[in-house]
Amino acid sequence: MSDQANLTEQLSKDQGLQRDQVISDLEAVLRLPHGRRVMLRVLERCGVYRTAFTGDRATTDLRLGEQNIGLWLIAQMDLVDLTEYPRLILERAQKKAEDKGTVHVSELDEE
After folding, report:
1. CA-CA distance, 84 to 27, in Å (whole number)?
2. Is 84 helix (H, G, I), strand (E, B) or coil?
3. Low-confidence ranges of the chain (pLDDT < 70)
4. H-helix or E-strand spanning residue 49
5. Is residue 50 situated within a structural domain?
6. Nearest one of 14, 24, 12 to 76, comparing CA atoms
7. In terms of Cα–Cα distance, which of 104, 85, 107, 88 is closest to 96?
8. Pfam families from the xrefs (predicted)?
9. How far apart are CA 55 and CA 91, in angstroms?
10. Which residues of 47-56 are buried (b: 16+ CB within 10 A; e: fewer)?
11. What is the pLDDT of residues 35-61, one digit of tens each?
12. Residue 28 belongs to a domain
């Protein structure tokens, strides 16, 4: 095998190990209730739930950058489990409903 092929194979192995570590780390964070709360706060701060366009170029560019980070985090969660982000959003909705004293989403299914 040529030196280039060996290098390519080693890079592929290293990238695979790095990807596995990222997934493992994120799984550990998302298993913890406070890790899930932090992830939600970061996503909210990144503005993935608001429009980026403000009419001011500099502010719009800043918001687009923040959203890019938020979308990257969502993509990282998808590596862990494609249902992780939707579950996180559902938990957020349930918490907001609890805070307002309204019906839980799961209670709607029981009716």
Report:
1. 10
2. helix
3. 1-5, 7-8, 10-11, 102-111
4. none
5. yes
6. 24
7. 104
8. Phage_Bbp19
9. 33
10. bbeeebeeee
11. 999 999 999 999 998 999 999 999 999
12. yes
Residue 27 belongs to a domain: yes
Name residue 18's amino acid: Q
Residue with tokens 């979308």: 71
Candidates 52, 33, 23; CA nearest to 92 is 33
Residue tagged 């780390």 (tokens): 25
CA atoms within 13 A on the CB side of 39: 26
How many residues are recorded in the chain? 111
Task: Judge whether 104 lies within some domain.
Answer: no
Domains of the chain: total = 1
Cα 43 vs. chain centroid, distance in angstroms?
7
Q: Which residues span the domain enclosing 85?
A: 7-96
